[in-house]
Amino acid sequence: MNFNHATVDDIPLISCEPPENERRHLVIWLNGFSGSKESVKTDLESLAEAGFVALAFDPYQHGERLVETVEELRDRIRGNIRRNFWPILAHTAEETSKVIDWAIGNLSVEEAVGMGGVSMGGDISVTAAGIDHRIAAVSALVATPDWLRPGSFEPPGEPDETAQCCYDRCNPLTHLEHYVNCPAITFQSGAEDQQVPPDGGQRFAEALSSTYANCPEKLKVVLHEGVAHGRCDGMMENSIAWFSKWLGT
Question: Long-range CB contacts (< 8 A, 24+ apart) of 98-106?
Fold first, then answer.
């Protein structure tokens, strides 16, 4: 499958087209922490084969946007997750609108789009859906809407002023009002995940139950038994089915 390359402002992206389709629905799919847009090419191909225009871009400080080596990135983030990771989530979620604007103008996609990803990519996707209401469907794999991640075995660190501002304006669980348009959101979580505990998605769904009272089927948490922090068989298939249900192909 051929991949097209482009840059929106300073955001490098790749996209691929479905073999045939009558309607052009975009799905943005993002990589996990320390990965890149190229690391999700297989997922993009799966989405395109299912009939979607599939696109990935390098999150802030990732891929072609690295400001250090990958190992240095990993060490810095793990050294203080709240100070160094929260800005990545917020900055990437907030710049997603630029990519959607570009895709509508250059790929002739419909305005309602899907978005998802693995771990960090899923965190970003849920956050972005609360910022840009053109994101109509989200599938977040081993991800959380609660940036505090209570119960995680990873030392969280402490935020500085910049990171705290990112949390204060973007953290999904403390901004339920961002989801009054009821985007279709599914969490595909590992039941045994102790790095990104799956109860974040459950608490989010419970907190939004009144908002989604007329469409509870649009908010779904799927726990994969025996799975820790990693994707498993069924997660991507469920994601494609979710996008097909709420976007069509």
Answer: 98/8, 98/9, 98/11, 99/8, 99/11, 99/13, 99/28, 99/55, 99/57, 100/26, 100/28, 100/132, 100/134, 100/135, 102/6, 102/8, 102/13, 103/15, 103/26, 103/28, 103/53, 103/55, 104/26, 106/6
- H/E segment holding residue 203: helix 199-207
Six token digits for residue 11: 């955001």
- pLDDT one-digit tens code per residue, 5-50: 999 999 999 999 998 766 799 999 999 999 999 999 999 999 999 9
Cβ-contact 18, 9 below 8 angstroms = no
Does pTM top 0.90 for this prediction? yes
Answer whether 215's CB lies under 8 Å from 153's CB: no
